[in-house]
Write a structure and sequence with these properties.
This protein is α/β, with parallel strands linked by helices. The protein folds into two domains: 229 residues, Alpha-Beta Barrel (TIM Barrel), CATH 3.20.20.60; 31 residues, no CATH class. 42% of the residues lie in helices and 14% in strands. The protein has eleven helices and eight strands. Strands 1-2-3-4-5-6-7-8 form an eight-stranded parallel β-barrel, surrounded by six helices. α2 crosses α4 and α5 packs across α6. The protein is globular, with a radius of gyration of 20 Å. The structure holds 3-methyl-2-oxobutanoic acid. 3-methyl-2-oxobutanoic acid binds next to β6.
């Protein structure tokens, strides 16, 4: 998968599968699947570091995760999130931040919102950095949005979102994530664009889907957003594995001859 495949898959009507990934071990696992590409999401601040939102993601944190994934992901394509405010201070600082992520192993970067980012997106794509947009529920704006709420539910906000999507395409984005928007709006935007949309909480009619690694594998026992589907009950299965380990120590079943060195 590379940037050209994104366009080709849209033309061919072939759905694009994206998963977030944050570390080497998970990258080795994902590398051996048919998933199309990985996103080093700034959700790493929450899933890997336990922060309450993505505002705590920093550039060194994102570079650290990007580098770890790039060592394990084989030839899969890596998109890395530009963290909170790393692309809002000046053109020069933003380009340096994108450079750090690319040099850590990313093949493309993602940033949230259209307003104020159009010049930067144009500059980055002209400089050899593919840019993915992100519209709808943009978690870095959570304090302005007033919470994790579905976006574009009213005529006016839906029209604004569609206009932003066209602006991002015009500026050179190769794809756009649509997060938590009504399915009908996501369909309308997807049909209006030549570049593929990747949905999360945006219904079935986007050109592809992205899910957070921990949500997909059911690793969170206490957090299940409406749009996320766990394809395996990872929490229970892994917990049972650890309990079996503890039990086999106590019963003396582990280690046995198989795991011991002779002389
Ligand atoms: O940070 C992230 O994981 C994301 C996805 C939810 C799209 O941006």
């Amino acid at each position: 998968m590379n940037v050209l495949d994104f366009y080709q898959k849209k033309i061919a009507g072939e759905k694009i599968s994206v998963i977030t990934c944050y570390d080497y071990t998970s990258a080795r696992l994902v590398a051996n699947t048919s998933v199309d590409c990985v996103l080093i999401g700034d959700s790493a601040a929450m899933t890997m570091h336990g922060f309450k939102d993505t505002l705590s993601a920093t550039l060194p944190m994102m570079c650290f995760h990007t580098a770890a994934v790039s060592r394990g992901i084989g030839n899969k394509w890596i998109i890395a999130d530009m963290p909170f405010l790393s692309y809002r201070k000046s053109l020069s600082n933003s380009v340096s931040a994108a450079q750090s992520l690319m040099q850590a192993g990313a093949h493309a970067i993602k940033l949230e919102c259209a307003a104020g980012n159009i010049r930067l997106i144009r500059h980055l794509t002209e400089s050899g950095i593919p840019v993915m947009g992100h519209l709808g529920l943009t978690p870095q704006c959570i304090n302005v949005l007033g919470g994790y709420k579905v976006q574009g539910t009213r005529e006016e906000s839906a029209a604004r979102l569609k206009k932003d999507a066209l602006l991002l395409q015009e500026a050179g984005c190769f794809s756009i994530v649509l997060e938590c928007v009504p399915s009908t709006l996501a369909k309308d935007i997807t049909q209006a664009l030549n570049i593929p949309t990747i949905g999360i909480g945006a219904g079935p009619d986007t050109d592809g889907q992205v899910l957070v690694f921990q949500d997909l594998l059911g690793l969170n026992s206490d957090f299940k957003p409406k749009f996320a589907k766990s394809f395996v009950n990872g929490y229970e299965q892994l917990k049972n594995g650890i309990e079996s380990y503890v039990k086999s120590i106590k019963t003396g079943e582990f280690p046995n001859d198989e795991h011991c060195y002779g002389h």
